[in-house]
Amino acid sequence: MAPPTPEPHLFVVFGATGDLMQRKLLPVLYRLQARGRWPPGSVILGVARHLMSEPDFRAQALRSLTEEKVGDAGTVGAFCGATLFYQSVPEESGSSFAALRARIEELERVHGLGGNRIFYLALPTDAVGPTLTGLGEAGLSSGPGWTRVVIEKPFGHDLASAQVLNRLAHRYFSEKQIFRIDHYLGKETVQNLLVFRFANMFIESLWNRERIDHVTITVAESLGLEGRARYYEKEGALRDMIQNHVTQILTLIAMEPPATRDEDSIRNEKVKVLQSIVRFAPGDVVRGQYTAGTEEGKKAVGYREEPGVDPQSDTETYVALRLKIANWRWQDVPFFVRTGKHLPIKASRVMLTFKAPPVTFFQTAQEYNSNPDRILILIQPDEGFEFAFEVKVPGREMRVQTHRMKFHYGDVFGELPDGYETLLIDVMLGDPTLFVRADEVEESWRLYDPILTSPPPLTFYPAGTWGPAEAQKLALEWGQRWYYE
Ligand code: BG6
Fold this sequence. Notes:
18 strands; six-stranded parallel sheet; 37% helix
């Protein structure tokens, strides 16, 4: 069956001169268009504060697309010339938004677009509220066709600000129009967690406190700050990664089977997981910051030496958490979660470790308990699943050795689509299943708010290592350790 094609529309991006648009959205939109997945005739209106001419905006976009190597110069140039427009909105004033509205209506008239609009807010958190107000007050929250608004993470800065933002958004837009985006939900392997768990009877029958000893979730990045000090200094790893991407993985791992595949059934189950997580005690959280070290053979400066970072900065670049989920499936099963920048590798992985057999009479290379059976979910890179289990080493002696059974997406399906590609198509089709609902985002902040209000003291780790020693203690105190596989 051919995939559904969205209706033609105007794609308006706020923050159009910024990093996200230039490095991510533009290449994705270009690729969708090149593959015929973006409705012909649709155009992009870039919006930013800069006073910039349309030719300059197109030239900037051309440079970005060339750097990303998305296609040959002729095709990329033609895309920029025919599809990209620019409007500066120097401040969030009524007159700027009135001018924006006039421009939108003119583009729709000239391109025969029928009034379908997407407003993509690729903006810092504190600019989101004023932009929503500007759109609403200019009468842009509804139009002659459908209108949808996409809001980047982090949604708010804590629970109170997320609640304020939700109220403000709902003043002008219905929940159905709001798409809170988290690009991890667009990743094939993250979505496949539902299939892996609920389409395979043998997996689901093991996925509980009777069989699973503990779960670890690691989202490791080898890169450091990459020139994003202005954003990162305000957010830190808890707001940048844990509250959204990592929590999404956690809820999909822990949720109950939804009644149906519709948007609300799945999101209801995710919310229930968040509501069942036991509130954190002070010793359950480790915050770390990288110091100077070596990453992939190259010297890396410490976080406080990065350009634009306060030399006394208290911002964390690493977080490790331990938690429990108080429900029938997971009661007493420890979950260990960690993320950090400048760790030795880039890898997002989940590991479910099985309980050891009650007794064993086999001779193992290592002590049996240090080698339990495991399910390893490789979210990226090298996406796939592995089962680690014991086999007999051939020979007279009864010796046991760990073996792995592997499924890797690349071997079977080739290259996977980018998460943003999947999610942008969903916005264009109006499918909110893979977006974060208002109550979900608030539940997630409710969980982390106590840590934000009284953060544990910062600890340190050299760039290129697996985080602060305190994170080891956090797992050891609950009788476990982190695996580096
Ligand atoms: C972004 C964060 O949302 O996700 C970045 O702001 C992080 O700090 C990035 O590097 C990680 O995404 P991915 O898809 O490369 O794992």
